[in-house]
From TrEMBL:
Segment forming the signal sequence: 1-27
Protein's UniProt name: Membrane protein
Organism of origin: Dyella japonica A8
Pfam families the record matches: Slp (PF03843)
Origin: domain of life: Bacteria
One GO cellular component term noted in the UniProt record for this chain: outer membrane
Keywords assigned by UniProt, alphabetized: Signal
InterPro entries: OMP_Slp
Amino acid sequence: MNQHITHTLLRSAVATGLLALAACAPAPIYKPSPSTVATAPNIVAQSPDRFADADVIWGGQVVEVRNLADHSEVEIVGYPLDSSQRPKLANNGGWGRFIAVMPGYVESFDYPTGSLITLTGHLSGARNGKVGEADYVFPLVSVAQSHRWTADEMNAGKSNVSFGIGVGGVIR
């Protein structure tokens, strides 16, 4: 076969493969509004008044659910989001904690400790509290919508293929 044709077929195959991988990744689930701020919970906690009435799209890992008389509060350790708005658990810890205020009763079974969540909502102030014995300022988010991620959704669009150069062996 002609070398030019082989090269063209190889480039087409690589391009098609990359498009197929990109097509597998979920699209972002929430569209930012004009008042959406791209800042982390720990930054908001430092000066909550500066971000009053802003919208956020935040995600992270559930710490606990507290059900109150007329609403529920979900404490979350915030993490950066990937292009599909899935939380990216970082090795250097989270972006700070926040409290997602949800109307009505939230079943803690549906939001177990450690589960991953992304939400959109409105910053509605901050509350002083504690993490262990340490004082902490929790930004409060009045939740408009939320999504708890399944393991399959977290892995969607991630390639199982890895490339590398090295030496390997089996010791018996």
